[in-house]
Design a protein that fits this description.
The chain has 3 helices and 7 strands, in the order βαββαβαβββ. With about 120 residues, the protein is an alpha/beta fold. Strands 4-7-6-5 form a 4-stranded mixed beta sheet, with helices on one face. It has a 3-stranded mixed beta sheet with strand order 1-3-2. A hairpin with a 5-residue loop joins strand 2 (about 35-40) and strand 3. The termini are far apart. About 20% of the residues are buried.
Length: about 120
Amino acid sequence: MKLDAIGIVAQDIKESVRFYRLLGLNFPESNEDHIEAVTASGIRVMLDSAQLMEQIHPGWQKPVGQGMVLAFDCGSAEGVDQTFLQITKAGFKGKKEPWDAFWGQRYASVVDPDGNSVDLFAAL
């Protein structure tokens, strides 16, 4: 058994695509309620509209609180800093500015358009 895909419910798929493209995910152009990109490690990241979720799962409600955290290896400490700056300059929310963590990584956190925490890291 292997992890194949991660699904994210998006209130605004176009805005979520814009955010995740800044992190290197190559989503195709689409106006569909479901869209996928494949990471460099082969895991599919799937974005589904809230409307599609409501059709598939009647009574579905948007989760409250922090449902998940995704973490992206930026390759270097400079990569963490640059990615954080690129995302926040694009108008997305920074949660925690880059810092040198005691566990030996450069670390930062941002927030995707649906409130999911996304961590950026690299070994020091």
